[in-house]
Amino acid sequence: MRTIFLLLLISGLFRYSLAQEEGFCSAPSVLSKESKSKPLYSKIYDSTLSPLNLQNLPGFTRSVYKRDHALISPESHVYGPLPDWINTSGAFLISPEMGSHFIMYLAKLKENSRSGLPLHDVERFIFVLHGAVTVTSAHGESHILKVDSYAYFPPNFEHSIESDAPAIIVVFERRYAHLSNHVTEPLVNSTDKQPLLETPGEIFELRKLLPMSLAYDFNIHIMDFQPGEFLNVKEVHYNQHGLLLLEGEGIYRLGDSW
Ligand SMILES: *[C@@H]1O[C@H](CO)[C@@H](O)[C@H](O)[C@H]1NC(C)=O
Ligand SMILES: *[C@@H]1O[C@H](CO)[C@@H](O)[C@H](O)[C@H]1NC(C)=O
Which residues are in the Cupin type-2 domain (predicted)? Predict the structure, then answer.
């Protein structure tokens, strides 16, 4: 039983380091010229990523919504208030209404912002994309998380996420699948502290942000691709993914679409 659950959900943050020169895919890229002056991961919230010639075309979007996948590009992120959060707006990217067993959203924290709690029995994972946030547990233990840092909050674990300056985080929430005699612990850490893992048959760099023990019912992968690198395995299985392209460019096949 449990094995099925472990495979049920792998949410990923992808980081393609793909410096695209003029070549066979030479749609003019706004990014390649401007990326050096922009903050790390600005791609996620910069809504002007469409090719230069199409940028201002009303109605232009690369976003698609299909039965088994969706591609949601930055200009389709619609921010609205998040229930119980203060001075924060959120853009939902994935929700159970789309058929997933988890929620994925971007939260934009403004000055003097503060999070609300997830629903009962729901675990939460956050990863900082811009700025910094302070996470505090009910016991008063406090950590400052900067870009590339993350936190995991077990279900029903009281905590707050606060910021006194603008910050952006990605949040994953999921109804926890309890297993007797196994409990998850709250975690705070950063990507650079995680070891590179073996990826037999693959050439990209892989880091996992959560422990691979039975207690954790999902994981977050940071996948780094150098120019020319690719994922060898063609995944066809029942497995749910939420994916955020953090940096660079790449080609991704979803269903029958490229
Ligand atoms: C939101 O931020 C503003 C400006 O910093 C602050 O004055 C206000 O009290 C905050 N709102 C709430 C509900 O705390
Ligand atoms: C962060 O992760 C590393 C590698 O998994 C671990 O050795 C270290 O103890 C963790 N740090 C904290 C503060 O949990």
Answer: 108-171
Q: Which residues line ligand 2 (CB under 6 A)?
A: 189, 193-194
- Residue 89 near ligand 1, beta carbon < 6 Å: no
pLDDT in tens, 216-248: 999 999 999 999 998 999 889 888 999 999 988
Ligand 2 atom index nearest CA of 187: 14
Q: Which atom of ligand 1 is nearest to the CA of 114?
A: 14
Question: What dotted CATH number matches 5-224?
Answer: 2.60.120.10
The tens digit of pLDDT for each residue in 100-118 reads 999 999 999 999 999 999 9
Ligand 1 atom nearest the C-alpha of 87 is 1
